[in-house]
From TrEMBL:
Keywords: ATP-binding, Cell membrane, Endosome, Glycoprotein, Membrane, Nucleotide-binding, Phosphoprotein, Repeat, Translocase, Transmembrane, Transmembrane helix, Transport, Ubl conjugation. The lineage of its organism: Eukaryota, Metazoa, Chordata, Craniata, Vertebrata. It is a multi-pass membrane protein. Belongs to the ABC transporter superfamily. ABCB family. Multidrug resistance exporter (TC 3.A.1.201) subfamily. It catalyses: glycoursodeoxycholate(in) + ATP + H2O = glycoursodeoxycholate(out) + ADP + phosphate + H(+); tauroursodeoxycholate(in) + ATP + H2O = tauroursodeoxycholate(out) + ADP + phosphate + H(+); glycochenodeoxycholate(in) + ATP + H2O = glycochenodeoxycholate(out) + ADP + phosphate + H(+); cholate(in) + ATP + H2O = cholate(out) + ADP + phosphate + H(+). It comes from Denticeps clupeoides (denticle herring). The gene is abcb11b. The chain crosses the membrane at residues 12-38, 96-128, 171-190, 196-218, 274-296, 688-711, 731-756, 812-832, 838-859. This is Bile salt export pump.
Amino acid sequence: QLFRFATCREVLMMACGGVCAALHGSAQPLMLLVFGMLTDAFIDYDVELNELMDPDKHCANNTIQWRHLSAQENLELNMTRPCGILDIEYEMTNFAYYYVGIGIAVFILGYIQISLWVTSAASQILIIRRMYFRKVMRMEIGWFDCSSVGELNTRMSDDINKINDAIADQVSIFIQRFTTFVCGFLMGFVKGWKLTLVIIAASPLIGVGAALMALFVARLTGQELQAYAKAGAVADEVLSSIRTVAAFGGEMKEVERYDRNLISAQRWGIRKGLIMGFFTGFMWLVIFLCYALAFWYGSSLVVDTQEYSPGTLLQVFFGVLIAALNLGQASPCLESFAAGRGAATIIFETIDREPEIDCMSEAGYKLDKVKGDIEFHNVTFNYPSRPDVMILDRLSLLVKSGETTAFVGPSGAGKSTTVQLIQRFYDPKEGMVTLDGHDIRGLNIQWLRSLIGIVEQEPVLFATTIAENIRYGRPDVSTDDIIKAAKEANAYNFIMDLPQKFDTLVGEGGGQMSGGQKQRIAIARALVRNPRILLLDMATSALDNESEAIVQEALDKVRMGRTTISIAHRLSTIKNADVIVGFEHGRAVERGKHDELLERKGVYFTLVTLQSQGDKALNEKAQKSEYLSLLLASIRQRSRSQMSNLIPESSSYISQAETEKKDVFDDEDETVEPAPVMRIMKFNAPEWPYMLFGSIGASVNGGVNPVYSLLFSQILATFSITDPVAQREQINGICLFFVLVGIISFFTQMLQGYAFSKSGEILTRRLRRLGFHAMLGQEIGWFDDHRNSPGALTTRLATDASQVQGATGSQIGMIVNSLTNIGVAIIISFYFSWKLTLVIMCFLPFLALSGGFQARMLTGFAKQDKQAMESAGQISGEALNNIRTIAGLGKERTFVAMYEAQLDAPYYAALKKANVYGACYGFAQCVVFLANSASYRFGGYLVQQEGLHFSLVFRVISAIVTSGTALGRASSYTPDYAKAKISAARFFQLLDRVPKISVYSDNGEKWNNFKGHIDFIDCKFTYPTRPDIQVLNGLNVSVKPGQTLAFVGSSGCGKSTSIQLLERFYDPDHGRVLIDGHDSTNINVSFLRSKIGIVSQEPILFDCSIAENIRYGNNQCKIGMNEIIVAAQKAQLHDFVMSLPEKYDTNVGSQGSQLSRGQKQRIAIARAIIRDPKILLLDEATSALDTESEKTVQEALDKAREGRTCIVIAHRLSTIQNSDIIAVMSRGYVIEMGAHEQLMGLKGAYYKLVTTGAPIS
């Protein structure tokens, strides 16, 4: 299935590459043949030397003979060993040629195999990318709702890259390794089946060991993750309810709770380290025992029965070894196949999926003449992504042609949804939408959308010039039309003022333009289409007054003679519509003109009253200009308002400037200087004994490899000993030594594994605890930043801390291991033959280089690919993010074409890469052969000319080669190390950050007779994450001890914000909050919070028992059961708790999900009471309840208020009437203040709200 897009040409290329790979795979076993002959030659030569050392023997007629016997007698004694024929240098030269020949063949084969496969993969990937993007752009909008844009973007990049990995070089490498495996075993069986069987008999042990290790590690990792998941859940719970934690001063308590959960995770981690050490040790032990067995049995075959020559022994042994190794190396390729198949299923699924509303289809008919009557017949609709939420509920509605119809109503009532149905982004579940009496499902989509011009609340511009953006409205439009449309949209003047006029680039997402300018360009774009139907979805809501007036004028100009639907919240935009339709809960509830609807006192009336009230107050207050920005505040989305059902919200008021600012922040965040290693080590200092022992273990393990090469060459040397008894003794000795080395390495591996995992896990736990402690110490404003959302912080705790382990712990072990390995090898080599060592060392850079080169090549290419794909990614990202706009403009094909044009560059890059990568791969593979040819040739020379013993040649060569691989291993650990340093740096950044409002510090004023007298003096405040929205705008209010103050006003006017200033979650930007005459910024934070109790609208409970939750109210001291019961009785909670089976030990579930709202609310009240606070804050404490529970809770609250200063925020008059002071707020300051009677007498805003009985919201 992976190759379903391959053409004949590609199939041919892949077949060719496969054959080459197979030939390449047989090269290593071929080399073994040569190696065996070479060993035999060396041994014969050495035997000859040994024989001739006997003074009684000499070389006559090319045979060794006893000096004092005649030729005849020598024959009878079987003295036929040849001599004098063997010219070792000549032989070695021959072998060197063989090696070079194989090397060159390998280079060519490697090059062909890789470049062919990579090339064919590149063209297949090109096809897949094209098909995928084309298909995605054809999908209906509902499909995009269900799959996030980010996910689609990663699929386009990562998943397709995974497929690429699976069908490119990996296949050929797999074929090559598999061939090696087969050939190696064949060779073993052909040359010597007995020994092969013996070796194979022992190998299941290794397999079993590996399998068990994998099993245990997976088990333990699972356990560790589970244990950490508990701690993670604690962290998540605490961070998502950080305001509650802060208000009740529970920081230290939470850190302790988190730490308790970390202990078990740490235990599992240490066990895992120990078991890994045990199994690694076990594998080494088995491998060494295998060596011992093979050499012992093999040598007996060579010496006793003389079935094998020593060369054959080596061929068999290494044949099987290489086969096993290659089988192991082939398995990662299988993993990448699996990953590729996994990725491909998703992608091919999308490619095969037929869209429900296909925007590129030619089907559907086009009307000759369009009037523009739109009618909804009993339309029921819900979004595919949220099937359980009914958006439109049997909506029937008529929009007449040529009229302007305005839709008003709370957000979520389905206004924008109707607009999307007209554009046929979705099809209704039931009922139908008709245009001039034709069901729009029967019309051609592109044609239908070409009739409609839409201006959205947040217009989307594309990253090109202004003229191009307007041209997106209609492709064949002339420059004059563009200018005309710009004039109609009141955009012409500002465009002509720009230096490049119509050729000005608008930036990514239109970022270079102000809101008003973007809006007017979008209007021009809609007008160029000359649409029959104009849809205005809150087209002016995001603008300030001045630009609003201009845009509004433009809209009024263009509405003439078109069917216009306008969705708006500002009266100024609605008043002059022909018909106003009021929406509520997915139905059109009222319809008529401005004056008619005011009579009805319904949805529309409430909207109007609130708005005009605020406007009046504003005008009285001050010169208008300063408060323009406030117009936003009226509709600003309040950070946690759930009840803003009436003045709808929209998250789009984050002005452009701010989004740009955000980007800047993000970049700063990414570039962290890697942390100094010393500082990381300091955190790990207490564990130094573990680290010391671990390092000792690691260094012993490092010495094992070179020792192995010593033993190996020693065995070869024994074959040339002439005296059988001495020979046998030596062989047995060496085999025993192998066993000994195996046992030692078993213990040291265990030591290394345990010691380092212990120190690493302790470090991880310590860092997590410190990090969590630091997070809880930050001021609340820090948590508002989208980068510090609870999810992001929990992941940071989970991953960063464990990645830091990469710089200490097992990393150190690896490094020590590799270093000793190299050190010992080089010492051994130089000691035995410095000349040969130097010759081989010449090749080391090449060996290291080829390894490094391969790694570099791949990462380098990945980078290039990434850059090449980036421009394509930008287009796909822009297309997917703005899919609605593109669909509305019918521009899908344009984007597909642009995307495909961008794909050529990466494709050609991939072709180039195929060649370079192939060459590098070939080079890396053949260096080994060349190194061998040179070193053996030179070894032969040394043996003959300088009398070097031949076993030393093998000793030096194998020592250096093994150490070379160790070098490679050491360098492969650097990425982890770099990651660790960056993670650590991120962590230290967190630890070093000084919060603006510090909870942990003891500085600040405390005083004894805390009364609870509160004054807000001219407070101004904006949330740090939304600096352009003024929330409080000169708030003046004061409460005497024991008084109750009630705030009323529409959502977003700053009621809750004032409470947060009092709690010191934030400090005011300007003005002061005084408590008992002390400035809040100088008071000790935890002291201040300990005097305040808070009950909020949605009380947050923690996942523990009811008693624990109430106890949370006072974290300063231990609280007995009696006090809890007293508090519960005051909160009308006790009776209900006693009716539960487990009484006070009942678990409330995560976030209190096991309880009803009234019950949660009363627990929250009990929690506030047990604090015995001087100041009680009630933020809409009863708004979420039904009448019955409201009564109970209200009683509880009235009891709780006695003798305390109390601030109430409420929407129901019943809860406010008996307050001492009522403050009516609008737009961040108080417009009326006094007791209930006084305010009724004023006949102002409060009076109006009470008499109309409209909900105060």
